Amino acid sequence: MKFLVGGSGSGRAVYAVKGDDAVDLTALDPAVGDDLMALITNPALAKSVVAKVEGAPTVPVASITPALPVTRPGTIICLGLNYTDHIKEGGYDIPDYPALFMRGRNSIMAAGAPLVRPSCSDKLDYEAELMFIVGKGGRHIAEADALDHVFGYTVFNDGSVRDFQRKTHQWTPGKNFDDTGAIGPFVVTPDEVPAGAAGLKIESRVGDEVLQSSNTANMIWSVAQTIATVSEYTTLEPGDLIAMGTPPGVGHAKKPNPRWLKPGEVIEIEIEGIGICANRIVDEKDMPSKVAAE
């Protein structure tokens, strides 16, 4: 099943996507709620509502404004350095343990929303990534059982402010600017893709300019290995988000000059079988003040 969380004239809802059309699952059963958490935590509810999709009224997918698939994820964990050629272009040594960092909620936003270049830097970069949503939580999850803990897969753009990323070995500043991590719009269940979402084409582009083009088969650490590794030190919970790192071709490594994202451009991240995450780049000075909005 392919899901889309988003808003329309009737408010935000969870939709089942069938081609260019979508069925409002929240209208079929209000227990579904307005993001994926109810379906993630209640497999029986998910099974019952999906059974009602056939023959239900549809709306065009194009009429739905995407929202985050999980409104308030508990933990957002990201892998760095998970494709060998990306490691080489960044000048790093190939690690024997994944480079892990965390993002805060203010740093993420939905596909289609403005991706904000901060006022303090013009070095905004893109990173095409596979992301998965934890379905069943746990600690010390065995690699052999790990894929049973995945609810679904989505697309992530790990927008990175490179000069701030380099200010510290921990990467935290450059990976946590507000509204730089775009997610979605679609979430596909594991039965829709190969095991661990391996073997899928992954690409980033601006217009006709292809920036990255690779395959998720080239990841060093698979989804299953990542779940086993992360759950060794922390308890994973339903709705947690884990991003799987980016392939080569990022902007800071372009020769002879870096390729930074500019206001007005639309960056697209596409993963085969999952969908396209597209966001327009906007200068922070042109965005409404969050302080004023509060």
From TrEMBL:
The keyword Metal-binding applies. Keywords: Lyase, Metal-binding. InterPro entries: FAH, Fumarylacetoacetase-like_C, Fumarylacetoacetase_C_sf. Residues 75-282 form the Fumarylacetoacetase-like C-terminal domain. This is Ureidoglycolate lyase. Its EC number is 4.3.2.3. Belongs to the FAH family. It comes from Jannaschia donghaensis. GO terms for biological process: carboxylic acid metabolic process. It is an enzyme of class 4 (lyase). It holds the Pfam family FAA_hydrolase. The keyword Lyase applies. One of its GO terms (molecular function) is ureidoglycolate lyase activity.
